[in-house]
């Protein structure tokens, strides 16, 4: 979504890493439209779209599609976000995972279907899996980076108990899949039914050495204040869009269900959207328009794939809608 935001600390860290890899800082800043003031405080909110452009520019300049993955494996979360400090001050991995889910919005806006937690521990007969419930859109970048972050933190903090055992991902092998054995060091299954990392079960019970109640309390009080500040900028429309985005590929969205997820009646949701000058249908249509432009401008998915991701039953219906939004066909707008 075009107005999704995230913490500037992640952009700063990637920017520094890309510059160290030989990319010109000025070209990265110009492409992303970020300023030095935007990056002065790690908690400042920046557009997610700017971060994506930053990454795409770095990859294009280096010719290395594994650039973000290597960056994540070689950097520390606590240097980018208060959430990293909270995680390292937690008493155990299950405790830290609860905090990660609780404060995930401080890192980035990532809508999850049904309002569930992003990460979940799932136990089966012979294994424990860390499941990422972020909606699958066929891309590899965000998913590989999220699991790499867990792996990198444990490799540094507790190399005596390797965290990762195996990886399942829904996407097809990325261009740098030949580097996965070197970087992930575990068997990887592509085109799986879910995104999940099999973990060492010892971490369900092992205590963290860094867990300190006093420090943990300081960090969480600061994080709670940041969450409260973010909430003051929320609108009903943004809350509806967040839930729509997670289910956009389904096509027909239920106003009743989204109202229920927000703890509202259908009538109350209708009235609050009306007070903001929009209807439910208008929010849905405008979100599709913005997401269509995001997908097509990134040049990573076809017109047909974009139609599917936006919930159109046929590509022709998407083309008609796109002409209504822009006056041009998707291929003409993208410049194909």
From TrEMBL:
UniProt cross-references to InterPro entries, sorted A to Z: AraC-type_N (IPR032687), Homeodomain-like_sf (IPR009057), HTH_AraC (IPR018060)
Keyword Ligase: no
Organismal lineage: Bacteria, Pseudomonadati, Pseudomonadota, Alphaproteobacteria, Rhodobacterales
DNA-binding listed as a keyword: yes
Gene Ontology cellular component terms for the protein in this record: cytosol
Protein name, entry field: Transcriptional regulator, AraC family
SUPFAM superfamilies, alphabetized: Homeodomain-like (SSF46689)
HTH araC/xylS-type domain mapped to chain residues: 238-336
Keywords of this entry: DNA-binding, Transcription, Transcription regulation
A GO term, aspect molecular function: transcription cis-regulatory region binding
SMART domains: HTH_ARAC
Organism: Poseidonocella pacifica
């Amino acid at each position: 979504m075009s107005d999704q935001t995230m913490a500037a600390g992640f952009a700063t860290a990637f920017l520094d890493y890309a510059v160290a890899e030989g990319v010109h800082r000025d070209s990265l800043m110009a492409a992303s439209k970020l300023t030095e003031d935007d990056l002065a405080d790690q908690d400042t909110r920046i557009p997610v779209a700017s971060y994506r452009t930053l990454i795409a520019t770095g990859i294009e300049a280096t010719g290395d599609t594994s650039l973000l993955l290597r960056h994540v494996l070689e950097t520390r979360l606590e240097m980018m976000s208060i959430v990293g400090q909270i995680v390292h001050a937690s008493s155990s991995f299950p405790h830290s995972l609860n905090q990660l889910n609780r404060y995930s919005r401080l890192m980035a806006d990532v809508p999850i279907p049904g309002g569930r937690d992003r990460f979940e521990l799932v136990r089966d007969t012979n294994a424990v899996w860390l499941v990422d419930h972020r909606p699958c859109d066929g891309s590899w970048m965000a998913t590989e980076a999220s699991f790499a972050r867990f792996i990198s933190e444990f490799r540094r903090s507790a190399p005596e108990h390797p965290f990762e055992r195996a990886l399942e991902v829904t996407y097809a092998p990325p261009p740098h899949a030949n580097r996965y054995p070197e970087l992930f060091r575990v068997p990887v299954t592509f085109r799986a039914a879910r995104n999940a990392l099999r973990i060492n079960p010892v971490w369900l019970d092992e205590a963290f050495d860094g867990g300190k109640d006093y420090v943990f309390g300081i960090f969480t009080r600061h994080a709670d204040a940041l969450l409260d500040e973010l909430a003051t900028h929320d609108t009903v429309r943004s809350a509806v869009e967040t839930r729509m985005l997670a289910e956009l590929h389904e096509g027909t969205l239920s106003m009743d269900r989204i109202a229920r997820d927000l703890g509202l009646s259908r009538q109350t949701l209708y009235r609050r959207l009306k007070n903001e000058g929009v209807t439910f249908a208008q929010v849905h249509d405008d979100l599709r328009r913005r997401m269509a432009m995001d997908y097509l401008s990134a040049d990573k998915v076809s017109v047909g794939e974009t139609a599917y991701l936006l919930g159109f039953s046929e590509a022709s219906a998407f083309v008609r809608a796109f002409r209504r939004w822009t006056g041009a066909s998707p291929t003409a707008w993208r410049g194909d």
